[in-house]
Design brief:
Blueprint: H1 3-16, E1 49-51, H2 59-72, H3 90-101, H4 111-130, H5 141-147, H6 220-223, H7 228-235, H8 240-248, H9 258-267, H10 284-301, E2 330-331, E3 340-341, H11 342-345, E4 355-357
Parallel strand pairs: 1-4
Antiparallel strand pairs: 2-3
Helix pairs in contact: 1-9, 2-4, 4-10, 9-10
This protein binds 2-acetamido-2-deoxy-beta-D-glucopyranose (4 copies).
One 2-acetamido-2-deoxy-beta-D-glucopyranose binds next to loops.
């Protein structure tokens, strides 16, 4: 990989690390109660999908989700529609759109909201293209960390009912000094082992068709950044722009942040999830980011409806003194979905989005 792309990767990483954190208390008013009790729901959202933690899904729900993800990644069943040359599958569309937009969607005010929309369209595609009937699950890492169990024993990494575990250990470069990296090679078992699953784009920003195994490189110390204290710290702000800042924080490996915990705890130095551009090649990407979306919703719910209208943070990465995003700011997913304004996606049960969290 060229050194420039390594630098960019480093910067991105830092962003990812930004302390992300979370949801402590459910509000007694809106708590986990789906509409119609939620008073700000659009008439267009009568039956929100209820997103659950991976561990809360039944065995058959887990199986159905994994089958749908495999379906999106199966090029015989589906073909790219994003218009990015070289892509082979509907899953590649998502990896490609993330890769193309990586320089504009990290360390900006719309980081979380872009990903909110991205996940919602992914969830919609799983349902519409692959017949999935459930909601996008999330992964509450803090519960696993607090269990005291080894990462290989965590439900999400189960070989049979989860996403498979660590990659086999290989020696390799570790330019950012990820501590205790322990894999780096191909994930040997489970539904995403080669050749059942193939990561087709990357490494880095390359959009060339480059099918290869899914690699993971667990780092226990990085994973353990995602503590409840860190989650609480992110949530403990009054303004959206501060929430957005704390989620990503400063891009260095010495400052814990929840976003980076998932990316580098699982992806380490050599795994797909640690690759800023190509990270959606590991399907766990979507569960990790959905947890952060749940954090944002937790923060919003603490003050409704005010926090349905509060946005801020830089338009240009790291430009903290320059112009801020506003509700009229548009985000898009290339040809995958219509562009939307931030105002349209602030509400989980609005005219565009229709889901809630358990
Ligand atoms: C994880 O679960 C714990 C226990 O239910 C909860 O307190 C915490 O807010 C959850 N974290 C996230 C990020 O959802
Ligand atoms: C999953 O499979 C790998 C490779 O065979 C093995 O090393 C690991 O122990 C298995 N995990 C569990 C939890 O059994
Ligand atoms: C953007 O918002 C930040 C934080 O509220 C503020 O300090 C900054 O001055 C704003 N930028 C502009 C150009 O107004
Ligand atoms: C979304 O906006 C971008 C930038 O303005 C534009 O190039 C693109 O064509 C729009 N996409 C759609 C699907 O309208």
């Amino acid at each position: 990989m060229a050194s420039v792309s390594r630098l960019i990767r480093f910067a991105v990483i830092i962003t990812l690390l930004g302390p992300f954190v979370s949801l402590i208390s459910a509000s007694p008013t809106y708590g986990n109660v789906p509409s119609p009790k939620y008073p700000f729901a659009s008439p267009k959202c009568r039956h929100p999908l209820i997103r659950k933690d991976w561990r809360a899904l039944s065995a058959s729900e887990k199986k159905a989700y994994i089958a749908a993800v495999q379906c999106l990644g199966n090029k015989r069943k589906a073909k790219s529609i994003s218009g990015i040359p070289g892509l082979q599958t509907r899953y590649d569309d998502f990896q490609g759109v993330h890769s193309v937009q990586t320089p504009n969607i990290h360390w900006v005010g719309h980081f979380m909201l872009w990903h909110r929309y991205y996940i919602a369209i992914y969830e919609k595609t799983l349902r519409e293209v692959c017949g999935y009937r459930g909601a996008q699950p999330y992964w509450n890492w803090t519960i696993d960390i607090n269990s005291g169990k080894d990462m290989s024993q965590w439900p999400i990494f189960n070989n049979n009912t989860g996403f498979g575990g660590n990659g086999v250990y290989i020696d390799g470069e570790n330019p950012f000094g990820i501590p205790e990296r322990s894999g780096g090679g191909c994930v040997p078992r489970g539904p995403f082992a080669w050749p059942k699953w193939s990561v087709n784009l990357g490494p880095g920003s390359s959009l060339d068709y480059n099918p290869r195994c899914l690699a993971r490189d667990f780092s226990r110390p990085m994973m353990r950044w995602a503590t409840q204290e860190l989650v609480n710290w992110v949530l403990d702000v009054k303004k959206y722009s501060d929430f957005a800042y704390r989620l990503e924080n400063v891009p260095v490996f010495t400052v814990p942040n929840v976003h980076g915990a998932g990316h580098f705890g699982v992806g380490g130095a050599l795994g797909a999830l640690g690759d800023v551009y190509a990270s959606p090649g590991d399907p766990i990407f979507f569960l990790h980011h959905t947890t952060m979306d749940r954090m944002l919703w937790t923060w919003q719910k603490r003050k409704l409806p005010a926090r349905l209208y509060d946005v801020g943070g830089p338009i240009i990465p790291f430009d903290y003194t320059g112009p801020n995003i506003t509700l009229g700011f548009k985000v898009g997913l290339g040809k995958l979905a219509p562009n939307v304004t931030l105002a349209q996606i602030m509400n989980l049960q609005g005219d565009i989005l229709c889901y809630d969290y358990q």
